[in-house]
Amino acid sequence: xxxxxxxxxxxxxLALGCCAVAxxxxxxxxxxxxxxxxxxxxMEDGRIASVEAVSDNAEAxxxxxESLKIVADAMVAKNSVNVDAVSGATGTSNAVIAAATxxxxxxxxxxxxxxxxxxxxxxxxxxxxxxxxQSLVQxxxxxxxxxxxxxxxxxxxxxxxxxxxxxxxxxxxxxxxAVAxxxIAIPSxxxxxxxxxxTFFDMDETLALSGVANMAALQEAMNGVVNRLGANCFYMVKxxxxxxxxxxxxxxxxxxxxxxxxxxxAEDQTEFDYEDxxxxxxGLYCPDYMGDLNSVGWHFHFxxxxxxxxxxxxxxxxxxxxxxxxxxxxxxxxxxxxxxxQSMELAKNVDEAIHRAETATTGIN
Length: 365
Ligand SMILES: [Zn+2]
What we know:
With 365 residues, the chain is of the alpha+beta class. It folds into 2 domains: 7-115, Sufe protein. Chain: A, CATH 3.90.1010.20; 126-359, CATH 3.30.1330.80. Helix content is 28%, strand content 36%. It has a 7-stranded mixed beta sheet. Strands 12, 13, 14, 15 and 16 form a 5-stranded antiparallel beta sheet that branches. A 3-stranded antiparallel beta sheet has the order 1-2-3. Helix 1 packs across helix 3 (90-115), helix 2 (62-78) runs parallel beside helix 3 and helix 7 packs parallel to helix 9 (351-359). Residues 1-19 have low confidence and may be disordered. Bound molecules: zinc ion (ZN). Zinc ion binds at residues 158, 167, 299, 301, 312. Zinc ion (ZN) binds at residues 158, 167, 299, 301, 312.
């Protein structure tokens, strides 16, 4: 897929006449019918200077061997990879044309990447965010996207539901809802979401965790990887293993008029302590500059292995676990057009309220 995105970008750029045809050489092999054809194409002074085509099955078919040279020579003569197949050897001819086309595109793509005007992003490296933590914390709990829509943007993540009706854990493409009694529900596709972050998880790095005493130590261990790979990207993480102890919270669904999140949680937060429990923490790291759109640093939600218990992580002690990191360099945000949302003062500093909402424990189990 990535290769074709490059190819299309190059073709578009060339069609727009923005860049000269690049020089260079590339070798590409293509599987034909009963053979593999390898083509080395060389561009010089913006023209096809030479095309060498060989087949790994040259002895088998005399006409095929002949056609390798005929097609290759035609490309040089025509200064194009779009040449006709040789009759009686269309299979071999088409393999040469396919390999030469690919080689030509690779030369152009490489030159283009060197120019810095095209940096193809691998699919799936985008963090999708629904609204802002700042709007949630100020009490905007109306759903903005549905569960079904959210799943089109990622298979892993965290968030909450309309009315802050519990904590969201998205894992392996399933959206779980840790409700007020600490149990897990599976929301319908039509359920709506006021705040969430998801991505399609592709692992870049792992870290073994053993005997990590508390939340601060866990964050420090995780920061080691983030600081090494680059602290200005996003990281979605999955920490799977055994947790010696973990304290999670959820909350009761709020009714309108909505109160600010820290106020609502002070009354309606529920907390649960588990010991020696197997499961997965799904976490998000946001860089320091994200303070106006989300919380910076780490935000963890937990779901147990049986997918029956879970919530927002307040305290944790890790026994043995493995953390998988997905370094993410793209960001997409969706907002509400609702007039209430539009009239909110979203640049207001709510750091204190966010800190309380993320970390406060009521002490009531
Ligand atoms: Zn949370």
